[in-house]
Amino acid sequence: MPHPPDDEALIAALRLASGLDPVPERVSAAARAAFALRLPGAAVARPVAVPAPSGVRSAGRDRLLRFGADGLVLDLEIEPSAGLVDLAGQITPHPGAGALVEVRTPRLTESRDLSPAGRFAVTGLPPGWFSVVCHRPDGPPVATVWTRIGP
Amino acid sequence: MIDRHTIDAVLDGDQAAWDAMVKRLSPLVWSAVRSYGLSPADAADAAQGAWLRLVEHLPGIRDPERIGSWLFTTARREASLLCRRNRDERLVPDPVEPDGPPGPEQAHADPALAVLTADEGRRLWLTVESMNEPCRSLLRLMAQAPDAGVRQLAGRLGMPAGSYGPTRGRCLDRLRAMLAPEAAP
Q1: Which member of B23, B48, B120 has the closest CB to residue A34?
Q2: Is residue B108 part of a domain?
Q3: How confident is the model at residue A87 (pLDDT cuts 50, 70, 90)?
Q4: Domain span holding position B142
Q5: Domain identity same for B11 and B68
Q6: What pLDDT, in 10s, does the model give residues B120-166?
Q7: Higher pLDDT, A1 or B9
Q8: What is the pLDDT of residue A54?
Q9: Neighbours of A36 (CB within 10 A)
Q10: Domain-located, residue B113
């Protein structure tokens, strides 16, 4: 037997049926534009727990994100900066010479070469949705799930 | 809701097919995120998240019938995360929960999906029109004024602001009972 709908589902149905809250054009435009961000064949890196580093206060830990897929680990550190976001990351093991990292947002993509230690950084990102993609010389690209950093 | 032909074209990278799918399903996504009382900017953010997740999950989609319920559930989850986050004003990444397709029980439980398919919307509002006051006016006003705050809605209904939430909860309970399959003639 299906569950009875919760309040939000019922409210959504009432609003939808009344037709009085039309979808704003910029919301539809963003949905159409999202299609350009697909990455066929990419391995999707999901979040994995970051082990608590000793001596680091728990308050700082939620700015550290770790994603993993296809033998690759992506560690990201998020730092708010005057309403924007700085992102620093490291990819282990190093995917090899010629690897390229893209930090993608719905509006812009920033590309970086990896340092010999597998590090990269991007500053001044707009808050909102982002995904980090590692293009490897051997093997399909690895992309983190879309993650939101709110203002 | 979305046919096999459209989803095959989408999987082949056809932007026009994607645009058609967006046109069909974006009212569903929008109503899902707006039902959490989010501002237009936050609702836009949550809706965008749902579409980005669909793009991410496209290769795994086998059943076009399920896209609507999957999107609806995903949009609601993003909206509910944003709600929680607004109460807790830190600039931190949202936790990402494991992404599974919604279970079969959810595919039929959401009246918003039914509203998309048939003249269920009319049936829904006929049911509301048959309710007693204050429920009839409250639900009508709530749907007609998506940006009105609780105080404004309560004022127009002539009730104290503190009564609005509990009254709305009771009215939704009653509507739910009236819509339940066993209550149908």
Answers
A1: B48
A2: no
A3: very high
A4: 121-183
A5: yes
A6: 788 888 899 999 999 999 999 988 887 778 888 899 999 998 999 99
A7: B9
A8: 57
A9: 10
A10: no
**Structure confidence at residue B90 (pLDDT):** 53
B58-70 pLDDT, tens digit per residue, is 877 778 888 888 8
Cβ–Cβ < 8 Å for A31, A49 = no
| B10 belongs to a structural domain | yes
Work out the angle at residue A62's Cα, subtended by the Cα atoms of residues A56 and A65, and round it to the nearest 5 degrees: 105
Could you give phi then psi for residue B93, rounded to 5 degrees? -65, 145
Superfamily assignment of A39-149 in CATH?
Answer: Immunoglobulins (2.60.40.10)
Smallest Cβ–Cβ distance between B31 and the set A5, A12, A78 belongs to: A12
| Contacting B residues, span 100-119, partner chain A, CB-CB under 8 Å | 105-106, 108-112, 114-116
Q: Is the Cβ pair B180, A4 closer than 8 Å?
A: yes
Given this model, what pLDDT does residue B111 score? Answer: 64
Other residues' Cβ atoms within 10 Å of the Cβ of residue A118: 20
Residues of chain B in contact with residue A15, where contact means CB-CB under 8 angstroms, are 31, 34-35, 143, 146
Alpha-carbon gap, residue A58 to A101, rounded angstroms: 29
The Cα–Cα gap between B154 and B149 comes to 9
Percent residues over pLDDT 90 in chain B: 40
Per DSSP, B180 falls in state: S
Q: Which of B25, B36, B73, B91 to mutate to test the interface with A (most CBs of A within 10 A)?
A: B91
Residue B95: pLDDT over 70:
no
Q: Do B20 and B80 fall into the same domain?
A: yes
| Domain count within chain B | 2
Whole-number Cα distances in Å, B48 to A82, A107, B99: 24, 12, 16
Residue B49 has its nearest CB partner, among A9, A32, A146, at A146
Q: What is the C-alpha to C-alpha distance for residues B73 and B52, in angstroms, rounded to an integer?
A: 14
- Parse chain A into domains and list their residue ranges: 39-149
Amino acid at A123: T
Nearest CA in chain A to B10: A35
